[in-house]
Amino acid sequence: MKNTLTLSFILLFSTLIYAQKMKVTEGDFDFIKGQSEINVEFDYSNLTLLKDELTNDEYVKAHSEDLEKKGKGKGKAWKKSWEASKDLIYAPKFLELMNRDLYEDEGVSFEEGLTKAKYTLIVEVIWIYPGWNAAVMRQPAKLTTVLKFVETANRENVVLKITSENAPGNRFGGTFSNEDRIGEGFAKTGKSLSKLIMKKAF
Fold it and tell me: How does pLDDT run across 23-32, given as a tens digit for each residue?
């Protein structure tokens, strides 16, 4: 019983250490009122990973080579899954949580491909820590992004800029998939941004 309580405390404490921090660094929320749709784009061009801040190419090369040593074809399969996760897991998770309250309560839709929308939200993915799961102990993923709202027709006009640091990502009951944990970090970011907009814009 004592060991169980200690383990629970460690897991809780590690989550609290990396609690998400959101901060408005530029602009305000006034532009959102009256908008029915906002375009969304995801930018991974400045992404770094892990504490060593590896580039995406460095991380993919190292991790795929490590997996390939454990089994022929594993590294190549993971590499495809890693790249596909951006469109199949990360973006959908973020948008689902963004729209859950904002669209239902305020009628504002956040979607990719809305090129005629007046404003675009650029989700700049800055840093990812994939986390890990060793069954009895685990570490959640962490995600740092810059959330930049710009005029679609004039990208230089930034109307709102928010930094989001260390959004935690993990599934209830845990998961052995790095991509699933990271996806939950995107979901947490979308949920937190949605709440912030609901509070500040309406």
Answer: 999 999 999 9
